[in-house]
Amino acid sequence: MRVFYSPDHLRHDPKSFIFRGKVVDSPEKPERAEVLLKALSAAGHRIETPKQHGTAAVEAVHDAGYLAFLKDGYRAWQGLPGASAEIVPNVHPGRNMATLRAHPVAQAGWYVADTACPVGEGTWMGALAAVDCALSATEAVVAGERAAYGLCRPPGHHAYADQAGGFCLLNNVAVAAEVAARAKGRVAILDVDVHHGNGTQGIFWRRPDVLFVSLHADPAVYYPFYAGYAEETGADAGAGATFNLPLPPGTGDDAYLSALSRALDRIRAFQPEVLLISLGFDAAADDPLGVLKISTEGFRRIAVAIEALGLPAILIQEGGYLAASLGPNAVAFLSAFER
Amino acid sequence: MRVFYSPDHLRHDPKSFIFRGKVVDSPEKPERAEVLLKALSAAGHRIETPKQHGTAAVEAVHDAGYLAFLKDGYRAWQGLPGASAEIVPNVHPGRNMATLRAHPVAQAGWYVADTACPVGEGTWMGALAAVDCALSATEAVVAGERAAYGLCRPPGHHAYADQAGGFCLLNNVAVAAEVAARAKGRVAILDVDVHHGNGTQGIFWRRPDVLFVSLHADPAVYYPFYAGYAEETGADAGAGATFNLPLPPGTGDDAYLSALSRALDRIRAFQPEVLLISLGFDAAADDPLGVLKISTEGFRRIAVAIEALGLPAILIQEGGYLAASLGPNAVAFLSAFER
Fold first, then answer.
1. What are the chain B neighbours of A163 within 8 Å (beta carbons)?
2. Closest listed residue to residue A234, CA positions, set A262, A264, A202
3. Most C-beta atoms within 10 A of its C-beta, which of A15, A144, A163, B265?
């Protein structure tokens, strides 16, 4: 399969993550992409550098003020006496306040929902490089490839049109889906990352032409906590075009595949022209953040079932943290599209 | 003046504060109340222990789910593997998500707007003790005293009906204002803390019988950033009953007193039965968090001007951090009501 990888992801190298009240190292490490690259290269996939796409496709999905913050916020933050090396929000408008001005602390808390996505000097260029990978994979599929893979890092599916969250800055799969929808018509996004793709859901919440389907650990006990419930099904013209399948912690291969068959039925019924896959490997049994129990053979079976839809498929890397199974799981998944 | 002080404030002893991306000591230290107590005692004020009021008055102002979180959240948080010693939020629902479940991390980010108000084992009892001080001062004034002072700690004016923020858990002045309004009719709240009293404003936003007037450093460049602007004037039946006077950083005594005269004109026109004063001393020139330049003589002049309204006055302690002027400023302010 054509694999799009950009070394520019290394420019985004977040250091801190506040977890349960303690400052810890960020698990969204650059090494994640290097592990995936090495494993896929060794498995014979064709590694390509994406072309640079500029910002037009990103602007079609994201809020202009948010993009200005991602691009220029770091410099403003550095002008604050005593500021940390990367932007970490500490005050938030919450549900009771609604005025945004230019102060760097106000911008940080407005545009960043949590402490998992520090913005550093290279974040904007790193995030754009991830979008480039997603867009080059999309162009390959729009041009006729059966499947292509964007080795995107940082991930994207928690990013809303106007807010970062959960290691995600720009929503790679949403930007790709918008481009694919404009080129081909109806598209479906299937999110198999262990976390609910709340940002993607939010971006397409009112859209009838983009089906969003997500399998994920139950948000009642897991990030993102405030979204991803089965009763969320879209609104307005998009009513019914969101489908969430929350799974209990501990879910293994067989129960996952059973839920997946419901997801695939929904996708078939939608009759999309193209499928986008938000491809996290953090449902793996040994993932350090995960709570599901998917094996490498499980990831292969999941991919085989998805491939059997017969749809052109754009694979977009989401989460999946440093674990022994990370490379093998990616190889197993992509192999199903190489038959 | 009768001064209500409870040693139970010591039960709330927050340790951490994330400021511009770095974990620092909380400046909202128990010593603040001890400094005020010592200075006022030495100046001859009568120190009294408040009576315990239970939770009915608090329940009249605050959301039931929020109160349950303050009361029981700490135990649930302690059940999380690897959790910190006090509750510090790290994920927030923001403007894009709206479902709350019971998980401790979800509760923390829903009910706490920023990283300045950690909830520890003694927070609930400490916050209730502050409310007791406010309520005993209120009862003294309702019963006929010219003025009384609640030496409240933790402070309260940033706390919304359903959310903590800015060192504040329970909104002492709002609870007191509600009791005073029920007993006497129309009341006015004058907030002279250096920070906008966003929580108090939110609680009475739609109320025609409670005037909220605040002088504070311009939120465009200062906490709470997202509220406190001059264009915020209340809504529905409360339209016109909110009056904000943001002041430029560096404002000194004379410019402050000039703005104060506008605030007092508004209060006179409202014709309240009782005045509540959200009394922060963090506008002091030497306050470690403050950005205004009020002198001790300035605080005396401010108090003299307020006293000249001739209204029964309930003084509720808000902010003001450890600084050489803290005790003298409190003594100077209270002296104006002792003529």
1. 94-96
2. A202
3. A163
Top-tier CATH class for B2-63+122-338: alpha beta
Report how far apart, in Å, the C-alpha atoms of A56 and of each of A52, A61, A62, A201 are.
Answer: 11, 9, 10, 21
Q: According to the model, what pLDDT value does residue A89 have?
A: 95
Binary contact (B82, A20; C-beta < 8 A):
yes
Tell me the per-residue pLDDT of A203-229, one tens digit each, with 9 for 90 and over: 999 999 999 999 999 999 999 999 999
Which of A18, A84, A225, A229 best tests the B interface by mutation, with the highest count of B CBs <10 A?
Answer: A225
pLDDT tens-digit readout, B223-251: 999 999 999 999 999 999 999 999 999 99
Q: Which residues of chain A are modeled with pLDDT < 70? A: 339
- The pLDDT of B198-208, averaged and rounded, is 98
Q: Single out the residue of A36, A14, A83 nearest to residue A326, CA to CA.
A: A36
Given B158, B195, B196, B216, the catalytic residue: B158
Q: Are A222 and A214 spatial neighbours (Cβ–Cβ below 8 Å)?
A: no
Q: Is A324 exposed, middle or buried (0-12, 13-18, 19+ CB in 10 A)?
A: exposed
B221 touches A: beta carbon within 8 Å: yes
Contact of A119 with chain B, judged by CB distance below 8 Å, is answered with: no
Q: What is the pLDDT of residue A212?
A: 98
Average pLDDT in chain B? 97
On whether the CB atoms of residues A214 and A197 are closer than 8 A, the answer is: yes
Q: Which residue is listed with tokens 């420019």?
A: A11
Is residue B235 less than 8 Å (CB to CB) from chain A? no
Q: Judge whether A92 is closer than 8 Å to chain B, CB to CB.
A: yes
According to the model, what pLDDT value does residue A99 have? 96
User: Does the ipTM exceed 0.90?
Assistant: yes
For residues B290 and B283, is the Cβ–Cβ distance under 8 A?
A: yes
* Test mutation, A26, A95, A206, chain B, max B CBs within 10 A: A95
Contact yes or no for B93/B107 (Cβ under 8 A): no
Does the beta carbon of A79 lie under 8 angstroms from any beta carbon of chain B?
no
- Residues sharing a CB contact under 8 Å with residue B106, sequence separation 6 or more, in sequence order: A225, A226, B91, B100
DSSP, collapsed to helix, strand or coil, labels residue B293 as: strand
* pLDDT tens digits for range A54-65: 999 999 999 999
pLDDT above 80 (res B32): yes
Chain A residues closer than 8 Å to B199 by CB:
96
Taking 80 as the threshold, does the pLDDT of residue B321 lie above it? yes
Quick check: A170 and A201 in contact, CB under 8 A? no
Q: Please give the pLDDT value at position A338.
A: 85
- Say yes or no for a CB contact (<8 Å) between A88 and B18: yes
